[in-house]
Please model this.
Amino acid sequence: MSGFSRAAFLVALLGALLPFHSSSNTGADTQQSRPLVAAVYQELQPFSYIDKDGQASGILIEFLELLSEKMGEGIEYRALPHGRIIAELVSAEVDIALVLMIPGEIDLPPVDSVKVTPGPIFKMPLNYYINARRRPQKPYPETIELLSDLSGFRAGFLRAGSSDAHTSLQKKKYVVYFNSNESMVKSLLAGRIDFALMDPLTVRYWNDRLSADMVMKYPVIEASIHLGFSSQKLTEKADLLCRDFWAKLVELKRQGELIRHFSDYNLASFGTNLLPRIEKATACTSIRQLISSAEKP
Model:
C-alpha cells in the first residue's frame, strides 16, 4: 500500500541535451513534414540516457523509435528540466511526451490542451528497495501503510517534476530528494539512506552496473504512463495523431510485436507491460479529464 494519497501527474522525461536524432519519415510528404519533437531527459537509465556517442538511448527512446517508424513519423528529442514538461506541451515548445500518472501529493494544474491516449501505454511498479548487504540499525517495519511508517528511517525519492507541490513531504526529515537515480542508488549503497523508491528495471540496471544487491522491501504503487500530444502546437493534428498512435499500438500489441521487439533487448517483461489493457474507447482525452477520472472513487 502506498504512502501517497491523491491522484497527480509527474513526467517521465526521456533523455537528451539538444535535438539529437531524427528517424526517417517514410510518408509521401517527407519534404513537407517536420519531425515530431519529443521531450526527453538525459539521466534516467535504463529508460533514457545519453550514450557514449552523444545519442539519446534507452528503453523509452527505443519505444518511441519503434512507434515512429511504424507510423512513418520523424522524431527528434529535446531535453527539458524537471517540472517543465506540461508547461512546454501547453506552450507549444514540444509536440509529444510520455506523461506519468501516479496517486501522490504532487499536483499539476489540469489542462485541456494536452491530449493523452485513452489508456496507459504501459504500467510501472514503484517499490521501496533496500541494500541487502547492509544490516539495518533497527528492525524494519513489518508492513507500511503510510509514508509516516518510515519515520526514523531515511527514504530516498527522485526529485519531483513539480517540487513546490512536495511541501508536505519536504517537511518530513526522513525524506531525502535526489536529482538522479544514480546519486540515490549510491547513497543507498553507502548507507546514507535506508530506502530508495524505484522501479524494477532501474534497480536491475544499477545492480548489474555496480555489482550491487538491492532488493525490494515494500511494494508502493503502480504508475500509469500515457502518451501526450500538444494541441497548442499540433492544433487539430493532436487528436488525429493521438488516435492513430493509439490504434497502431493496439495493432502491435495484438500481433505480439511489442513483446517480440523488446525480447530482443532482454526486456520481455517491459514488452509484456506495454498496453496492459486495450481500451475499448479510441477517443483520446485530456489531462484534465484524466485527472478527473483518476480522482473518482
